[in-house]
Amino acid sequence: MKKIAVLTSGGDSQGMNTAVRAVAKAAISKGIEVYGIKRGYKGMLEDQIFHMSSLDVSGIADQGGTILLSARLPEFKNPEIRAKAAENLKKRGIEGLVVIGGDGSFHGAHHLYEEHGIKTIGIPGTIDNDIAGTDYTIGYDTALNIILDAISKLKDTAISHERTYLVEVMGRNCGDLALYSAIAGGASGVMIPEIKSSIEDIAEVIKKRRSQGKLYDIIVVAEGAGNVLEIEKELSKKVDTSIRVTILGHTQRGGSPTASDRILATKLGIKAVELLIEGKAGLMVGMQSGKVTTHTLSYAWENYNKTSEEDYKIANMLSL
Ligand code: ADP
Ligand code: F6P
Ligand code: MG
Known about the structure:
With 320 residues, this protein is of the alpha/beta class. 41% of the residues lie in helices and 18% in strands. Strand 7, helix 7 and strand 8 (217-222) form a beta-alpha-beta unit. Helix 1 runs parallel beside helix 9 and helix 5 packs across helix 6. The site of magnesium ion has 5 residues, from helix 4.
């Protein structure tokens, strides 16, 4: 393995830069040339590929976003488009590719290996935490802490006005950000896409809390659990409290990565390069029970089923 490339793809996440840095430094230290691909698979197709030095990745471990930029290219599902993109690596003699992204990006990496023999390794970078084969994805911890900070601030104003706050957090298919921010943030309720919760039940919790003299309620709603404005409308028919909706949106994807995300990104970045040096490919790296592990790329989406019903029950038990 003489030349490898690295790209970031899909929704960005805090710690992607830390992972890019680790990949580049681990490779350069072993005498491997590193190429950066701008804008994910879009840049691969459009030949936006540049030679990277260690200067390019200097001082980025603590920076949010991604210096390589990210993009979505739905056309990458088309094998002809993938063939054109793969050609841009082959003509430079680039044999290995590290893809930092979510399950969609891993699908692309899987096809590039199967169809064109590009030695791909996936690093899970997404705030969603929706990938099997790793306990946590890079960016998840930072996003979770951003939500906790917001919940804490909202609690102050909720108490002053004796209000109910519905806080919408990211997660179209995965409720982890909502569930664990609800538990850690002391929320009065949580709605996630994986488990159906009734607005009636949430209304009952609010009424009970108020009868106990509690002055506020924070309900965390994952974006995939339903339209938060519709939920507000329904809930307002059932309770007398004043309700406000806060959508945290893309604030959850910015800012400097936490120590935990930086360490995770660094360990996984180094492992990705080690695997390429060993001639391995078509794999993803993850951290499970404190150990760096590897699985096939398809393991990431074929085995995804992490929702803990037990933790959902804990969140609801704590709401009273
Ligand atoms: P994430 O990687 O965070 O899940 P997306 O689902 O948006 O984000 O996927 C990122 C990119 O990966 C897509 O824009 C597309 O270029 C590529 N991709 C997604 N799904 C596939 C697929 N089934 N086959 C090939 N490429 C895919
Ligand atoms: O996959 C990461 C994510 O932030 C999801 O949580 C969210 O549903 C989606 O991306 C938002 O995508 P966009 O940045 O295109 O609005
Ligand atoms: Mg995804």
